[in-house]
Amino acid sequence: MDEIRGDEIRGRAEGTAGVPLSVLDLVTVGQGRTATQALRTSVDIAQLAERRGFHRYWVAEHHSMPGVASSSPAVILAHLAARTERIRLGSGGVMLPNHAPLVIAEQFGTLEAMAPGRIDLGLGRAPGTDGATAAALRRTDRLNEGADDFPQQLAELTRFLDDDFPDGHPYARIHAVPGPVQATAEGGVQPPARPPLWLLGSSGFSARLAGVLGLPFAFAHHFSAQNTIPALDLYRESFRPSAVLDAPYALIGVAALAADDEREARRQVLSGALSMVRLRTGRPGLVPTPEEAEAYAFSPMEREFVDGWLANIVHGTADQVRTGLDDLAKRTGADELMITANAHGGEARLHSYELIADAYGLPTR
Fold first, then answer.
1. Is 32 left (phi over 0), alpha (psi -120 to 50) or beta?
2. Contacts of 124 (CB under 8 A, 6+ apart)
3. 100-121: per-residue pLDDT in tens?
4. Dist. CA 20–CA 334, nearest whole Å
5. Strands, E, within 27-156: which ranges?
6. Which residues sit opposite 90 in a β-bridge?
7. Which of 252, 256, 356 is nearest to 314 (CA)?
């Protein structure tokens, strides 16, 4: 395995935060906004996160969702790498069954060459979309096979990243470039480091696999809160020390939004809740405005869904959000919190991260 140190994985808490704080970006697109504006907001948030001491900034892979412009994480990360200097950048995650492992190894090898020592490669086994779109992405309708083959795909990707297929393997003479082969070629001076792998999950499968392999684990608490503690327990129980980590390291994705007052915070998160109602009922679209969400007549079933959805979003004033995040970290034992702030407009999201940074006394660099 090429050089990966645990300190490239473990974050450092800043200010008065008990654990490192990071950012997960879905590059949301609101009604009346363009994808160009959403991507510019992502740059603004990444630069704010870097300036205020957030540890890492990840983007997630989603497809066929008008309100989410993050279908190409590697492209977005390249854009962000050119506009930041220190913050770690990564995928939260790349959906491995949608892609050939060699393609991912080449994309993230390229990113590592662009921003040495700053890239994380987070991997998931879900499609990040509906079944029909997944079939179009993969050029096959055998979707279960893709998920079932995840450990084998992961092993193949790791071999490409490390350039260590054994002699006699069909891929032994194939190299992911940029990559380690450039260090071993005559006259090569390429550093041997490559992006650390993270496994992402919303259930126990990836939790157990990450533990067995001794990899860091990221759990999607923001949409699977009921499974958080069981999955983290399973990860820790399954963990075996590896060349990457000598002890478990788990972060959780947390939906959180701070505003100047409680009413404004609820207005902002309600628009995201209505967006989820429409997505779950087969009507995906742009993120509605807070005004539309407030005026929307939710059916009893929709209201039940919204109430449950909002219960898992930490929202309110900055102090209330800080209290909620601290309680969640204590309850789950998470080593890091990765905050996603979904709202209609970029201004609300930027303001939320600034308020949270202030609440924890994060530095201004």
1. left
2. 61, 93, 94, 95, 96, 199, 200, 201, 206
3. 999 999 999 999 999 999 999 9
4. 10
5. 56-59, 88-95, 119-124
6. 58, 120
7. 256
Which helix (H) or strand (E) is 340 found in, with range? strand 336-340
Residue tagged 């297929």 (tokens): 165
How does the average pLDDT of the chain come out, rounded? 93
Residue 6 has pLDDT above 80, yes or no: no
Six-digit token pair at 351?
Answer: 């303001």
Residue 134 has pLDDT above 90, yes or no: no
Number of CB atoms found within 10 A of residue 354's CB: 17
pLDDT at position 365, please?
85
The length of the chain, given as a count of residues: 365
Q: According to the model, what pLDDT value does residue 274 have?
A: 96
Q: How many angstroms separate the CA atoms of 234 and 238, rounded?
A: 6
Question: Is-contact 210 222, C-beta < 8 A?
Answer: no
Structure tokens at 263: 């009413």
Give the integer Cα–Cα distance in Å for 147 and 349: 33
∠ Cα 155 156 161 (to 5°): 95
- From its phi and psi, is residue 213 left (phi > 0), alpha (psi between -120 and 50) or beta? alpha
Instruction: Report the pLDDT averaged over residues 167-196.
Output: 91
- The pLDDT score that the predictor gives to residue 141 is 62
